[in-house]
Amino acid sequence: MNGRLKVPSALLVAAMITAGLVGKPMAEGAPADVVAHTHVLQQGGFKLLRLTSGSTVRLGGQPIPVVNSAQGSFALIGFDRKEAPLRWLEICTPAAPCARQPMNITSRTYLTQNVKGVPRAKIEPDPVAQRQMQADNAAIRAARAKASAAATRGDRAGGLGFLQTFQRPSPGRVSGVFGSARLFDGQERSWHKGVDYAAPTGTPVVAPTDGVVRLARDTFMNGNMVMLDHGANLTSVYAHLHTMQVRPGQVIKAGQQLGTVGNTGRSSGPHLHWGLYIGAVAIDPQFWLP
Ligand SMILES: [Zn+2]
Which CATH class is domain 10-104? Predict the structure, then answer.
């Protein structure tokens, strides 16, 4: 593995470093598997903290899991689509008094996307469907809670996927971006918590990095849906799949096939929906691709 987390292009990165939006590459001699870029301080972005062993971290008073490994101690923080412009971190190390550190988060503007051709029953679910959605949401929350609990315990069943270079889970054309307001037949129903890749039904969907499967379920809205846990409270979801080829608890390697692109759930054509979360906060997956 020569994992290096990058943002879209060298030129863009240089511009973002100058603007203070992206962290500078780590010093020479940093372990080969440690990410080169440590933060995108924008709404939908993230910050990876490299810590002294034994440190604790709080954000807005809430504890953030710290992962200890041979490569060092790390914690991940995600910024909401509408994150406040200033957040304070509290970092406590064994040898020094606790320090408060400001994070200035740049705001973004988002697209408005009209979604057409979705069946009425998927836009206005009947009571039976609403009960199914409640059960789906409970299963999704429980799966995410398992990832949080594993990060808090220091259990690294899924490895250190959050430190690796991510690869695209699908070769398809980008047909939807993070943060867009979604209008179904002209009415705003939700916002888009991920990126969409349009691709023919049956196109392979692969894991972008190492992980462990936390969920593989047929859901009302997301259709066939897989969730991976990449460590440090970072999870990813793959929705509207035609087939699912993994089961909960299975350890997955980067590039391994999870299933195939489909049109299941609230979907208006074959595509992969890829979502990335830190805890319950949806972040922009495109910030994680080279
Ligand atoms: Zn989507």
Answer: mainly beta
